[in-house]
Amino acid sequence: MSDFEEPIQRLIEYFRALPGVGQKTAQRYAFYIIENSKDKAENFAKAIVDAKQKVRLCRECGNYSAGDLCKICERRNPKIVCVVQEPKDIVAMEKVKTFEGVYHVLFGCINPLENKGPNDIRIKELLSRVQKNGVQEVIMATNPDVEGEATAMYIAKLLKPMGVKVTRLAQGISIGSDIEFADEVTLEKALKSRQEI
Amino acid sequence: MSDFEEPIQRLIEYFRALPGVGQKTAQRYAFYIIENSKDKAENFAKAIVDAKQKVRLCRECGNYSAGDLCKICERRNPKIVCVVQEPKDIVAMEKVKTFEGVYHVLFGCINPLENKGPNDIRIKELLSRVQKNGVQEVIMATNPDVEGEATAMYIAKLLKPMGVKVTRLAQGISIGSDIEFADEVTLEKALKSRQEI
After folding, report:
1. What is the nearest CA distance from B187 to chain A, expressed in angstroms?
2. Distance from CA of A123 to the nearest CA of B (A)
3. Are A75 and A17 in the same domain?
4. Counting Cβ atoms within 10 Å, is residue B63 exposed (0-12), middle (13-18) or buried (19+)?
5. Between A and B, how many residue pairs show a Cβ–Cβ distance under 8 A?
6. Per the CB < 8 Å rule, is A2 touching B95?
7. What is the value of pTM for the model shown?
8. How many distinct structural domains can be found in chain B?
9. Alpha-carbon B68 to chain mean position
10. What ipTM describes this predicted complex?
């Protein structure tokens, strides 16, 4: 049926709104719900409402958290702060099991085209955190594009007078990639930052 | 975080249970929920519960329906019945805009390996429907595999004594495909069923 019965159609539309989901995938998801138990559907629905209701921003780092303070801020070294643009960047960074510091989520970056200035992202919170906790190093892990670079530079300028070490994730060729297919900007960066072996 | 905060983790697990969804996709879906409004999350949850609660099987064809009778059975010619294995097959068939008949969902096929016999699928319902409605033609649209074929043959044998025309979807090479890559069984079928041009 190109037009489904109403409750199915509505569910398909909600699934379609998920990132990267097209009509056919949304249909499969909806049929999965209908073909499974009532319990499962109700628990799924509850999980959605719960996640939205119970998850708030960690009062320190701004990451999504079930409590006032997130698990990372609770347990790890607050003297080393890694600054990221979005909570999902933390997911990626945490794959590096050796990092023992905490994070700071900016929720975006300085982007004049989107009318986002320094006051629209969580820079003030970062500065007061650095002062309050005696932070030793701030690692800038904003995206390696124009806006991310500019944001990193802007924040570095504010932090340096406070006597904090500010670093930036190294840029270069990706592990396992082919030099043949690397773009020129990446290669230039990699050449500039070359290290003795 | 390889281990997410509890409400996020639970939501990710529910999304992961959807067909074809891996860890990363489930994370993206969960973040989407958290990043959007509370209203949207609640409506999404409601749509899931509603779909499961309100959708039942059409009393005639067995397709998912919001009412006692599905939209297709309500409006279309009940003298031509297309027999399919699953409700999702109807979605595919309905892309053919010219079909004016109704459907009959078997919910599976005869499959000895899965311990599914003729009494485990909706064959009885089909027979009584054929009798009751004076059906003129039954089109077998079960899958073109061993079990689907066997089911179609079995049902055809039951229907023919009732004086109904029983047909099967044509089998052959797909439109737009390459003969070079067609498998031998398909080619053999296509050769056997060749038509004068």
Report:
1. 29
2. 20
3. no
4. buried
5. 156
6. yes
7. 0.80
8. 2
9. 19
10. 0.79
